[in-house]
Structure prediction request, 188 residues.
Amino acid sequence: MKTVRVLLALPGLAALAWGVVLFAEYALPLRPDVFGTVGWIIGGPIVNDAVIAPLTAVLGVVLSRLLPPHWRTPVIAGTVITAALAILAFPLLWRPYGTPPMPGLHDGNPALGLALTTATVWLAVVLTALRPRAIPPTTRDAPPITQEAVPITRDAPPVTRDTPPATPTDPPGTRADPPGTPADRPGS
Prediction:
């Protein structure tokens, strides 16, 4: 298992080392714009961890308390996706050319793109919450419904390893008679 972890970590460490090499090529010799870049590299995660992630978490907790159960998961997922979209769109919304130019990136309107993408996410949230449920939600006072589950009745004897399984035609809570009983003999 350790070998697998090491093999999975090696490409990540190689990418990290390559990023350090590329940043060193960009940053050395030091110039004033390098300090702005370092501010973005260090400030972005700090703003995310100190502001955006806690606000998203608090909003998720508040929504989970206020919304009905079938709306909770889609709305919380939509909230997290919206926060991630806002983080990604922030550099282009902050200033027109906040990122290095890429073909097609600056041709569009970033505010309109963010609005359309966010609208699509929330349309998916609403459609997901309104869709009919194929499986009823489980409750805490009943065991989960599975194919192997034995029906629970108050007056049925306990099921042991020696007890043959019930047949599909038996009413719930009854057991099949062992082979060789009078019910199995012809003419009975």
